[in-house]
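#onboarding

Welcome to the new folks! Below is a worked example of what a typical request in this channel looks like: someone posts a single protein sequence, and someone else replies with the predicted structure as tokens. Don't worry about understanding the tokens yet, we'll cover that in week two.

Example request:
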Amino acid sequence: LTQNMLMLRFANPIFSAFFNRHYISNIQITFKEPFGTEGRGGYFDSYGIIRDVIQNHLAQVRGRVCIHFACVCVCVCVCVKTLRVGQCMRCRITAADYLKSRRVCVGRGAGGGRQGQPGYLDDPTVNPGSRTPTFAAVRVFVRNERWDGVPIIIKAGKALNERLAAVRIQLRTPPASIFGPLDHMRNELVVRFQPGEAIYAKMVVKKPGLEMDFEMSELDLSYPERYKGVVIPDAYERLILDCIRGDQQHFVRRDELRAAWAIFTPLLHAIDAGAVPLHPYPYGAR
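Example response:
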């Protein structure tokens, strides 16, 4: 479904028309795991959640969401355009920018919760004085004409309440409506990578019945239901095939990697120095 982000936008005018700051209120990229390090603490403690998934995997997803083409989509063009998104994001961002504008929240699993699971520091392979976060939420912006002012919230964590990887694009509330206030009824486009690949759109519809009442409903494309019997290849299967074919669009170039590190390195240094507070959260938190 990561590949489908490009197909969804650039092959369907109904979606591509509103992918800009005039219609989109915010973009949320979420990665949640319902388990902790489970004996892998020694490895994880050297990296943390930001280096593990946010700086690389989720940053690539962000690039696919915000990418813009003025030419034919080929693998080289994907790399170049993704790089430009990263370069627009890193404009002189410092640790102070993250902290003063409240653009970051990091936490560490404290255990407990309903399941009574151990916390991150209870893992014997973890350094007792570790400051490694197991959860992070970062708010970033793309400084260009298309996306300026639209917050992109990237969230990832371990020992949370569910397994989920998804992109949620929330549209702005209409400035006026003949049906009354729609403040809590925003249109949304959601692409869920796991579990159960799906694409669905939330919209306001009329309730069944005689009265002119409205409610939120969904247009749902669930891949396991729509494509029964079709084998959806694993992500690594596709990457190996891309290597054989020489297709580079799903691999990070050196300049893309530098742009991604330029965004998050100041924050990582601030966390390591103790300038960013680590908030404890119970096992199974949202």
